[in-house]
Amino acid sequence: MHSLLTQTLSRFEEYERYVITANQWVELAQSQAKGARIICEPVAAGTLAAIVYAIEQTNLPNDALVLVSPSDTLVEDQALASALPKAVEKARSGKLVSLSVKPRKISTKYGYLKAGRFIEKPSFEKAKEYVESGEYFWNTGMLLFEVGTFKKELKPTHHTSVDRGLLEQSNQTDYVLLDGQWHDVGSWEGIYDASPKDLNHNVILGEGIELESVTNSLIISDKPLQLSHLQGVALVNTNHGMHLSRLEEKGADAPVESKCGNQQDRTV
Predict the structure, then answer these.
(1) In the beta sheet, which residues pair with residue 214?
(2) Tens digit of pLDDT for each residue in 65-88?
(3) What mean pLDDT is reported for the chain?
(4) 158 φ, ψ to 5°?
(5) Is the separation of the CB atoms in 145 and 95 below 8 Å?
(6) Which of 11, 50, 70, 76 could form a disulfide with 180 if both were Cys (CB 3.0 to 4.6 A apart)?
(7) Can you give the chain as a three-state secondary structure string?
(8) Domain locations in the chain as residue ranges
(9) What is the CA radius of gyration of the chain?
(10) Residues 62, 148: contact at Cβ < 8 Å?
(11) Phi and psi (nearest 5°) for 216?
């Protein structure tokens, strides 16, 4: 079985690849990231510091292109391949280019952007405004830029994430749409969204799981399990213990009829 890390690296086999990780994950990364250089962060200080450290360690020239890609996403390979030439063109013009997707719902869990403006995890009211306008798109975490542009746009900041510390501070942000499926699977909600569901809108991973009056839930168990009268929960049951939480905070997400589907592709 391929891990999310190996799947991510396989998308970029023709390029020089680097894996930025923490000390406790170096051995695991080395076992999976064949052909890639492992860069170990001296201290976990957020995504912005990780990118800065990696650029320093690789001594890349200012005209080198860097694509930052999280390993906890699922994306259609063809959609990514189609979007990259457009993203390269924009990056060569001095932009910080987000590979973005049209919002599937109103959500406070993603960054929203349009050309020249980036807002990380807005309030529900603002997210609703952005989605219904049809002018804003979700940031997938995949970011393309020239090293020189990154250095130029990097300002002193107390923020640790690349989203707040770089993208929100810059007016040189831009995007290219991914025309295909994309899922953030770095959370139980993401795994639920990306997985096939039964007639009761449940995602069931495991054998011998019996459900009664359970709906809209993610159930993962490596042993037989009987559950009843649950709605909208993530339950994970393994030999290491049990996790139980709500899939979504009340009011945090809501489906919406977005105007984005009627928009022209603005990347051309």
Answers:
(1) 230
(2) 999 999 998 899 899 999 999 999
(3) 89
(4) -95, -5
(5) yes
(6) 76
(7) CCCHHHHHHHCCCCCCCEEEECHHHHHHHHHHCCCCEEEECCCCCCHHHHHHHHHHHHCCCCCCEEEECCCCEEECHHHHHHHHHHHHHHHHCCCEEEEEECCCEEECCCCEEECCEEECCCCHHHHHHHHHHCCCEEEEEEEEEEHHHHHHHCCCCCCCCHHHHHHCCCCCEEEEECCCCEEECCCHHHHHHHCCCCCCCCEEECCCEEEEEEECCEEEECCCEEEEEEECEEEEEECCEEEEEECCCCCCEEECCCHHHHCCCCCC
(8) 1-44, 188-246
(9) 20
(10) yes
(11) 50, 45
Whether residue 256 has pLDDT greater than 60: no
Amino acid present at 110: Y
Residue with tokens 């770095």: 186
The one-letter amino acid code at 237 reads N
**Tokens matching residue 256:** 């919406």
Q: Output the six-digit token pair for 137.
A: 């798109």
Task: Write the pLDDT tens digit of every residue in 97-138.
Answer: 999 999 989 999 899 999 899 999 999 999 999 999 999 999
Which residues have a Cβ under 8 Å from the Cβ of 171 and sit 6 or more positions away? 116, 117
Residue type, 120: E
Amino acid letter for position 67: L
Which residues, in sequence order, are CB contacts of 92 under 8 Å at separation 6+? Answer: 65, 146
Given CA atoms 121, 245, 28, 11 in this order, what sign does their dihedral have? negative
